[in-house]
Inverse folding.
């Protein structure tokens, strides 16, 4: 389009400028002037006209020829060879004539015939030029005409093009109009849809503007708030709906904050809880806010109920736990008396009949204790009061211990007990030792109970890649029939059998096993064939212990030990329990002072030095914890004395309380001689030569070796610090620590060297310090 | 070459207007006025430098502006009938006579024009100065060998 129009413009410009005057006229005028010249010549010859006229005509013709030769219009003409030749010939003739013309009249008249001839000869050339001119100018007109035609055609195309463009634009406009119509219709439809959604929504939808003025109020809102739509339009949302004291000062503050719980006001003024969500939206009028309200009164009420129910349940649980605690104390305390006394009785002089009776009493007592323990265990596990602990222990040793303990029962019923291990022997594993022991104890005990003159085998199979160990308790007893297989794990289920009187039990043994297995994240299964036997399989996660670490707790032999000259303070309010404990301790060789309440205990502790204090926890007036704290806090002679708690309670929170008070160990009632001995052995600081006796050679060697290693390392570190000229107080501190270790193992010479080092550390020279270290090292070796 | 020859030949006494030869006759309201070169020069001397379709290259023309000529006679309207030696006649409307417009040229490139060179008088428009002067009408008014003017 651009090209066309510029073209057209150029054409038009061209037309505007005339590059020639009337060329055709010039050509004919040339001929006319020539004829006039010829006439003048002839007239001059006859004397009709003066030579002046001739001269004039000549000049005119001459100038005409000059014009023709230089004029732009004739350029194309002159390019024709014929024409240019003609011009040349004419020019020659004229030039030849010029002298004659320019001369005087007389000369001119004389030359006249010659001049006339010459002039006549031009005629042919002139004709040539004229004819060529006619053709040429015709051609030019034609081309001019064509130019005009082209220009107009171009214009025509431009106009057409414009028309097309216009049509195109119109088309586009129409299309966009259609689109916008379509869109408008769609918007209208969406609008209707939205309206339907809002009006049918079961949540209240309130639309308001920036100033809080309510613009819209749907049906649900009318219901919830109790206003008719018309009443409410135009009112302020804050004042109308939201209660002042709970709400932020403006509903608008809630925009974009998600679901908020608030109190709203009904039309009758009553408050009710709502859940509200507020969002801002843009519209042509600016910002529009939308609030959704949901009446949550019911939900709040439900929540309230739930909370109450939960609290009740928790209270119930607490009550249960409290009952547990009380019960355990109430039951264990007399049991302690019975069993303890029986134990003491056994060692007195008894005749055969008495021995028999005492035996029965002991068995019954033990059974009773077992029952009580079972019930308490179950309650504890169910209350979630227990957590699995982690210790390192050896599986085989544990199993053997269990089997050992049940050997008597087994042989009573003619059963043989056996332990086999499948696969690689299990090295120490990590798990809850006591609970694993209990599981096995219960299972093996059951197996023995239900088998007579048969065999009970405990198989241990290791699954190291799973990190699990499988225990199988296999008996050749009476078996369990299929319909009972599921029931046996339920509480209080004992199976009828012909051996009724011998199969005693609360029916809780397997219940406990089930719970403990669950606690340890294990699995238990049972298979049985009646009259042939039963297999219980327990799979427990017991990963291998990563480091074989030395247990710092030494294992004691079960023999009671001598603790002569150990001064013990016993604080126990119950007379029987006190008597039992006292006698046991005296049996172990201790000299016992007893107190019957906390107050007396504290008093005694303040005035006399004791090696160990046994403190009953649950005492009236001042309880054990308070007493212990009292003793620990004063600067009396028993400030540092180890205090061991005795309690009938067995809950973990008790343990925490006890340890907080500064007591280093707990014994549960009923106490046994062994337990007392163990406690004494653990808590009393023992001089080193007794260590071997107490611990056994192997253990003491192990511990001693560790100590020596510690000291050696300490010496090396001291040397380093001395050389590096470290802080003297740091050196003194390390020496002090090593002194403790040396003291514990009775390394007296080492100890004294270290003490010298410690005392002179601030003042001594470097080589003096080095000497002390060397001496200490030598003493060690 | 031809030009040189022509120029050489023209150097032979070309008929150039003599000092007091009458070049122009002006008829106006039954009055006739005759002008020679000096008379025309006295009326004005304006220079136009332009190319023309009858010459090659820029030419310098000196002459009296038509407007100045007519001012002498207080002529402001009407038509001028211009006639040449060969009786070519053309009508020039007075409105063409403007300042900066056509002149009655008596010098071309500083020299008087012989009749053979379209002299002695040639009405020259300033063609180069305005595309409006480059039309056939104007070209037809650019009368050379002018010798008579009549006011109508």
């Amino acid at each position: 389009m651009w090209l066309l129009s510029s073209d057209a413009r150029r054409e038009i410009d061209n037309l505007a400028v005339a590059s020639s005057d009337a060329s055709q006229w010039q050509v004919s005028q040339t001929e006319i002037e020539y004829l006039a010249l010829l006439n003048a010549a002839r007239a001059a010859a006859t004397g009709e006209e003066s030579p002046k006229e001739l001269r004039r005509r000549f000049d005119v013709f001459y100038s005409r020829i000059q014009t023709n030769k230089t004029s732009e219009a004739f350029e194309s003409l002159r390019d024709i060879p014929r024409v240019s030749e003609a011009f040349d010939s004419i020019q020659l003739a004229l030039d030849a004539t010029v002298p004659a013309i320019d001369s005087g009249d007389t000369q001119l008249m004389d030359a006249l015939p010659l001049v006339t001839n010459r002039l006549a000869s031009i005629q042919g050339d002139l004709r040539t030029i004229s004819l060529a001119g006619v053709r040429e100018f015709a051609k030019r007109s034609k081309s001019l005409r064509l130019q005009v035609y082209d220009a107009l055609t171009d214009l025509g195309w431009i106009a057409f093009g414009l028309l097309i463009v216009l049509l195109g634009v119109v088309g586009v406009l129409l299309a966009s109009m259609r689109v916008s119509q379509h869109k408008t219709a769609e918007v209208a439809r969406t609008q209707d849809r939205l309206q339907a959604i809002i009006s049918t929504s079961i949540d209240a939808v309130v639309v308001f503007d920036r100033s809080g003025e309510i613009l819209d109020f749907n049906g649900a809102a009318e219901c919830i708030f109790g206003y008719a739509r018309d009443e409410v339009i135009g009112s302020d949302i804050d004042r109308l709906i939201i209660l002042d004291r709970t709400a932020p000062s403006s509903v608008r503050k809630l925009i974009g904050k998600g679901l908020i719980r608030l109190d709203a006001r009904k039309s009758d003024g009553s408050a009710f809880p709502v859940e509200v969500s507020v969002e801002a939206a843009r519209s042509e009028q600016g910002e529009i806010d939308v609030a959704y309200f949901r009446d949550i009164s019911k939900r709040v009420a439900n929540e309230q109920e739930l909370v109450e129910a939960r609290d009740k349940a928790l209270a119930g649980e607490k009550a249960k736990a409290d009952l547990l605690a009380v019960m355990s104390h109430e039951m264990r305390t007399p049991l302690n008396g019975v069993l303890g006394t029986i134990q003491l009785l056994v060692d007195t002089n008894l005749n055969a009949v008495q021995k028999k009776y005492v035996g029965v009493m002991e068995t019954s007592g033990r059974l009773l204790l077992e029952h009580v323990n079972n019930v308490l265990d179950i309650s504890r596990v169910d209350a979630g009061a227990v957590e699995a602990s982690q210790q390192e222990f050896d599986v085989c040793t544990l199993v053997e211990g269990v089997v050992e303990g049940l050997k008597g029962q087994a042989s009573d019923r003619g059963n043989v007990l056996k332990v086999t291990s499948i696969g690689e022997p299990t090295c120490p594993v990590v798990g809850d030792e006591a609970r694993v022991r209990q599981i096995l104890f219960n299972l093996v005990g059951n197996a023995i109970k239900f088998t007579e003159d048969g065999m009970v085998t405990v198989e241990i199979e290791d699954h190291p890649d799973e990190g699990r160990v499988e225990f199988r308790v296999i008996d050749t007893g009476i078996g369990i029939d299929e319909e009972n297989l599921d029931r046996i794990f339920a509480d209080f289920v004992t199976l009828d059998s012909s051996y009724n009187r011998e199969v005693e039990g609360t029916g809780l043994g397997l219940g406990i096993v089930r719970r403990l297995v669950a606690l340890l994240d294990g699995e238990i299964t049972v298979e049985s064939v009646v009259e042939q036997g039963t297999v219980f399989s327990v799979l427990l996660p017991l990963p291998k212990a990563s480091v074989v670490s030395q247990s710092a707790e030494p294992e004691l032999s079960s023999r009671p030990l001598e603790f002569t000259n150990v001064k013990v303070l016993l604080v126990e309010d119950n007379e029987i329990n006190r008597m039992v404990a006292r006698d046991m301790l005296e049996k172990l060789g201790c000299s016992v002072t007893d107190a019957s309440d906390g107050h007396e205990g504290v008093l005694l502790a303040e005035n006399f030095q004791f090696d160990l204090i046994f403190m009953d926890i649950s005492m009236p007036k001042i309880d054990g914890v308070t007493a212990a704290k009292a003793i620990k806090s004063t600067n009396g002679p028993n400030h540092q004395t180890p205090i061991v708690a005795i309690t009938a309670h067995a809950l973990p929170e008790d343990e925490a309380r006890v340890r907080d008070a500064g007591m280093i160990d707990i014994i549960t009632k009923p106490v046994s001689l062994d337990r007392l001995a163990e406690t004494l052995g653990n808590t009393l600081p023992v001089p080193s030569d007794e260590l071997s006796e107490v611990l056994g050679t192997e253990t003491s060697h192990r511990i001693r070796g560790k100590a020596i290693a510690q000291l050696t390392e300490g010496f090396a570190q001291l040397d380093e610090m001395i050389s590096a000229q470290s802080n003297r107080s740091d050196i003194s501190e390390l020496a002090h620590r090593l002194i403790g270790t040396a003291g514990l193992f009775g390394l007296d010479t080492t100890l004294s060297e270290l003490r010298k080092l410690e005392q002179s550390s601030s003042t001594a020279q470097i080589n003096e310090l080095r000497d002390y270290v060397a001496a200490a090292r030598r003493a060690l070796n | 070459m031809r030009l040189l020859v022509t120029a050489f030949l023209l150097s032979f006494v070309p008929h150039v207007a003599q000092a007091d030869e009458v070049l122009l006759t002006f008829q106006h309201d039954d009055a006739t006025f005759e002008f020679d070169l000096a008379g025309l020069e006295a009326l004005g001397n304006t220079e136009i430098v332009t190319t023309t379709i009858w010459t090659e290259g820029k030419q310098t023309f000196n002459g009296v502006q038509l407007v100045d000529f007519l001012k002498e006679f207080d002529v402001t309207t009407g038509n001028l009938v211009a006639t040449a030696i060969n009786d070519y006649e053309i009508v020039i409307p007075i409105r063409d006579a403007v300042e900066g417009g056509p002149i009655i040229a008596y010098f071309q490139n500083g020299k008087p024009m012989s009749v053979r060179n379209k002299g002695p008088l040639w009405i020259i428009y300033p063609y180069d100065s305005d595309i409006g002067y480059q039309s056939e009408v104007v070209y037809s008014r650019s009368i050379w060998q002018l010798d008579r003017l009549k006011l109508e």
